[in-house]
Amino acid sequence: MLQAEAGKIIWLASYPKSGNTWLRIFLNNLMSKNEEPVYINMLTETGSISSSRHLFDELVGVDSSDMRAEEIDYYLPRVHELRSSQLDEIQFVKTHDALTKNQDGNWLIPLSATYKVIYLIRNPLDVCVSYAYHSGHDKFDITIQHMSSANLTLAKSKKKVNLQIHQYMGSWTDHVLSWTENMLDEKIHVVRYEDMKKDSVETFYKIVKFSGLDYTKEEVAEALDKSKIEKLQKQEDEYGFNEKTHRAKRFFRKGVVGSWRDDLSEDQAQRIIDQHRPLMEKYNYISPDGQLLV
Known about the structure:
Elements: E1 9-14, H1 20-31, H2 53-60, H3 69-85, E2 91-95, E3 114-121, H4 124-134, H5 140-147, E4 153-154, E5 167-168, H6 172-182, E6 188-192, H7 193-198, H8 200-210, H9 217-226, H10 229-239, H11 266-282
Helix pairs in contact: 1-9, 4-5, 8-9
């Protein structure tokens, strides 16, 4: 377990396509003083992603594009500590990193920088479909393979300098376990995407209370209304969204629970279940006797 003094960052942690962006937009709408929904390309109430290359270079004082991955990993814990120490108040920061250690045995995301963690989890069957489309294709077999790979790393290309530094993901199961088994229980709040959709006000209100924010359920409901997918799609159609990959047709696609049934074959779905069954059972995506619950 991580051991250290608490920091000032609330990590919004998740495997990709699990509701992280929706949560960030909600938080911006909740904390915004404007009557109109926030502009999706200016989410100023939440900090940038943990893997920001610009922030890393600024805090380390070295161009990370000239560094090896192991060197970046060496500095990352201190980067997050510095980021936390320079904050005047608690800040939300998005991360897709699994919770892992560098070669020196130090956690890349240290508890010394951590106030709390909101960990979002989504049915891996739906993640597969959404992640594939986000990557600009419908080759679900490729995504199934990626989701089972212990070595999956984002932004690791050496052919060009990415705006983000590399992020160790591992498999979907690895990612979930890394956060839920290594973070102190009192520091982490695990939220199912399906509950965010089914019982939105209550689920988001619990997130708000866990984060230490002082808002009523009525204010939560109002922020959720501003964050409806139809409104996000409208903004994306009008202005684009800077977090959409250039290969994807759109970022805010459906956000529907159980949409995997329209895309995955029986064999593809079974492979995902076989690879991730223990956690799918634990989080009530499948019953012990094999019945799909979502």
